[in-house]
Amino acid sequence: xxxxxxxxxxxxxxxxxxxxxxxxxxxxxxxxxxxxxxxxxxxxxxxxxxxxxxxxxxxxxxxxxxxxxxxxxxxxxxxxxxxxxxxxxxxx
Length: 92
Prior knowledge:
- By secondary structure, this protein is mainly alpha-helical.
- The protein has a domain at 36-86.
- It is 40% helix and 9% strand.
- The longest helix is centred in the C-terminal third of the chain and has 22 residues, at 66-87.
- The model has no long low-confidence stretch (mean pLDDT 79).
């Protein structure tokens, strides 16, 4: 069964490939693939905001309570998905 594709927003910090000149010949090379997606970046920022809001009892999110930590992670990605959706042009 095919799982739905999650919009990851592409790379969080895209950099155009550098151009170099070797013996008068212009060449291009690519950076390594992978890295943080925009969705990951947004989720990290959301998690930081959730923790710094003071509304979360951090004592409940210890290593002894993986369910609570998983719920915070899921909430962070839900916020990230909403942020990605808000960036898309709206049609009238």
